[in-house]
Write a structure and sequence with these properties.
There is one protein chain. By secondary structure, the protein is α+β, with helices and mostly antiparallel strands. The chain has one domain (about 30-145): Immunoglobulin-like (Sandwich). Helices cover about 20% and strands about 40% of the residues. β1 (about 30-45) and β2 form a beta hairpin. The protein starts with a helix and ends in a 16-residue tail after the last strand. About 20% of the residues are buried.
Length: about 160
């Protein structure tokens, strides 16, 4: 009898922990989007290119002063580039909305080859949460041939 009560209590505690973790992580994808590579020029062991990103904010938070960081697709502390600020017109990145950023970069040829073979760029979004903690999240990306300068917005009656 005591063993059954202990097992039930342990199961209930485990279920509560799993529920709270999954609720905090939602589907585990706070940021997603698309990327394109244009203006590609190989220069020996380096490749100069323009990386365009269309990023969607699914974090549930409106972000101010978000920073997009590009890291190698393999683990490591190296930073390949930083989109230090969004377009000055985008002062606030609202939850559920998208932004387009682009930057000319020079990256190692091996990294470009990985991206060309289907490995996505290591794009991370950093921001300060409402409670003051610094957050850094990975963005899940898919490749597109071209990302327009400004995403098309569906027209909504009355707006």
């Amino acid at each position: 009898m005591k063993r059954t009560i202990l097992l039930r209590a342990a199961f209930t505690a485990l279920l509560a922990v799993l529920t709270s973790v999954s609720a905090a992580a939602k589907d585990g994808r706070d940021f997603a989007g698309q990327y394109s590579l244009t203006d590609v020029t190989e220069m020996g062991g380096q490749v100069k290119l323009t990386l365009s990103l269309r990023l969607f904010n699914y974090s549930g938070a409106d972000l101010q002063q978000a920073v997009v960081t590009l890291r190698p697709s393999h683990p490591g502390p190296e930073v390949l580039g930083t989109f230090a600020a969004f377009d000055p017109a985008v002062e606030l990145w609202r939850s559920g909305r998208d932004v387009v950023v682009r930057q000319q970069l020079t990256i190692p040829r091996e990294e470009y080859q990985r991206w060309s073979a289907g490995t996505q760029p290591g794009v991370f979004i950093g921001y300060i949460a409402a409670d003051g903690h610094q957050i850094r999240r990975w963005a899940q990306l898919s490749r597109r041939p071209i990302i327009p300068e400004t995403p098309a917005r569906p027209s909504v009656a009355g707006q």
